[in-house]
Structure formats: C-alpha cells, structure tokens
Design a protein that fits this description.
The complex is a heterodimer of chains A (224) and B (80). By secondary structure, chain A is α/β, with parallel strands linked by helices. Helix content of chain A is 20%, strand content 26%. Chain A has one domain: Class I glutamine amidotransferase (GATase) domain (Rossmann fold, 3-Layer(aba) Sandwich). Chain A contains 5 helices and 11 strands, in the order E-H-E-E-H-E-H-E-E-E-E-H-E-E-E-H. Chains A and B meet through loops of A and helix 1 of B.
Chain lengths: 224, 80
C-alpha cells in the first residue's frame, strides 16, 4: 500500500484534511511532527500541508524551512523522493530552494478564499497524470501570499523544462489571475520532476457534495 | 552592538502595500509622490562590540534567513 508522510508544523491547519483525502483514496498516512529529525521508513510521498507555520512570521515558510524535519525532507527530495507542497507547503518549498521563485503578497492585498478554475499545463508527471493537458479543474484557493514571482530567465527555464503544471484561468480556460502571479502560475515542479508545489487546495475538493471532487482526481495521480 | 537591517522588495518588483499607500496619499491631496515602497526593519542586538564583526555576523544572518534574495534587497547599518 502506498504510504504518505504528512508534516505537521505549529500552525499547520490542512494536515488533517490532507490525511482524510489520502485515506479516502486508500493510502496509508503518517503524520510527522516538525521536531522529528527523520521521516518514516518506506514512504512514497511527503506532503507539506497548508496553514500558517510559525504564524507566517518574517516571510511565509521562511522559519519552517529550517525546522528539524526539513533537513531530512531536503535529503529525501534531493535523492529523488516525491514531495508535494500545498499552499504554505509550497511557500516552504520555495524558501527551502527545492523549487525556484518566491511568493509576494497578493496584488490586491486581500486574503483570497474562493473556488478558482485552473488549467492543467503539464500532466506528464506523477502528480497530475490522471488528468490531461488543457483540462480545467475547479478547486479552492485560500491565501494572502500567492503572488508567485520568478525573474524572466527563471520563467524561461520553467517553460523550457515544462515545469509549469497549473495556471489560473476562468471556466472556459482563458487566463484569469486572482493574485498577480507571474504567467498566471498556480503550481510548478522542479526540473527533475519529483518536487511539486501549488497554492490551490486539492484536499479541499474531494466531495462533489461540497463543490468539487477535482482535487481527488489530482491526488489520485500519486497512486501507483 | 546594535545593527539595523532594512529589507525592501527589489526595485522592479511590484510592492502592493507601497502602491496602495501611494494611491491613498494622492487621494488625500499630497501631490508629487512618485513612488512609495514599504519594507521592514530588523534590529539586532549583538554581543560583539566590534562594528566590522557585527556587520559580518548580520550579513550571514541576512543571507541565511532574514532576507529572501530572490525578491528582496537589504542594507545593514550599525548604530553607535
């Protein structure tokens, strides 16, 4: 059975939602406290969930990035292990330099919490492989610092290596940018294709009854 | 030895707080404000009495944690 480690920082608030979502697709989960120094043995994926680790002090994710568990997460990622960062988890991966770029305050300065459409830009990876390029998913966003920044050279690299996974769009797939992100970017991966980060919350879109189950389809990509 | 680190978004990177404040100043009738940039100030009280040593410690701290050089610039000033 697939085994997922879900990190818990002081201030994580999507840890149990993420655990629930992965359990629902039949995956074994282990919650890992940030003060631990080693990830569990025999895991297939590390998820850094959303929330407000360390109260978002200094910069979102800047302090969490140095939490004791993170050195093992960085070694795991550098050895080719799969890591998914959602929202604050994405911010932590950026601060840890496991993904390129940085987050700024949303352009309109608001905390934006709503459903948004996203276009799949690349499904040829172990995250979004249950979807196809150009597919549109509808899942929640909830952040104040999701305004992704990367310089022009960096953006060209992302494009050349097909590292842009998801962009913000409207229901017809036309670009629609809620927060000011460069190139409407909502989610990316690293060059090697084993570290994924996105601001939207797939774990909050797993029941059609409460809006959408598109998030479930996304997370199922990790199933072997 | 006290050290002040000023951190600002790099020029050319949109500063939404600065923009909003710039707009508010214009609305209030303050003319000729060409740009507002808002940053943060970090004050360190370091054990060392040596200014050069304090600056070099603060610089290491800035690079490691206090500043994200992808989007931010910083200056370091010792306070006598």
């Amino acid at each position: 059975m697939m085994h997922v480690a879900i990190l818990q920082f002081l201030g994580s608030n999507c840890d149990h939602d993420t655990e629930y979502a992965f359990k629902k697709i039949g995956v074994q989960t282990t919650l890992v406290w940030y003060k631990e120094e080693k990830l569990p043995e025999n895991i297939d994926l590390v998820v850094i969930p959303g929330g407000f680790s360390y109260g978002d002090y200094l910069r979102c994710g800047a302090i969490a990035r140095f939490a004791p568990i993170m050195s093992d997460v960085i070694s795991y990622a550098n050895a080719g292990g799969k890591v998914l960062g959602i929202c604050n988890g994405f911010q932590i991966l950026l601060e840890a330099k496991l993904l390129p770029g940085a987050m700024r305050r949303n352009k309109n300065l608001h905390f934006i919490s709503k459903f948004h459409h996203l276009k799949v830009e690349n499904s040829d990876n172990s995250f979004l492989n249950k979807l196809s390029k150009e597919d549109i998913v509808h899942i929640p966003i909830a952040h104040a610092e999701g305004n992704y920044y990367i310089d022009e050279a960096g953006l060209k690299d992302l494009q050349a290596n097909h590292q842009i996974l998801l962009t913000y769009c409207d229901k017809d797939g036309k670009p629609s940018n809620p927060n000011g992100s460069v190139a409407n970017i909502a989610g990316i991966c690293n060059k090697e294709g084993n570290v994924y980060g996105l601001m939207p919350h797939p774990e909050r879109a797993i029941e059609t009854l409460i809006g959408s189950s598109d998030g479930m389809t996304m997370l199922k990509g990790f199933l072997k | 030895m006290k050290i002040v680190i000023d951190v600002f978004l790099k020029s050319g990177i949109l500063d939404p707080q600065g923009k909003a404040t710039e707009h508010a100043l214009a609305v209030l009738g303050f003319e000729g404000v060409e740009e507002v940039r808002i940053g943060k100030q970090i004050v360190l009280n370091l054990a060392t009495k040596d200014a050069q040593e304090a600056i070099s410690q603060a610089d290491a701290m800035a690079k490691k944690l206090l500043v994200n050089e992808v989007i931010e610039d910083y200056t370091i000033e010792p306070i006598q």
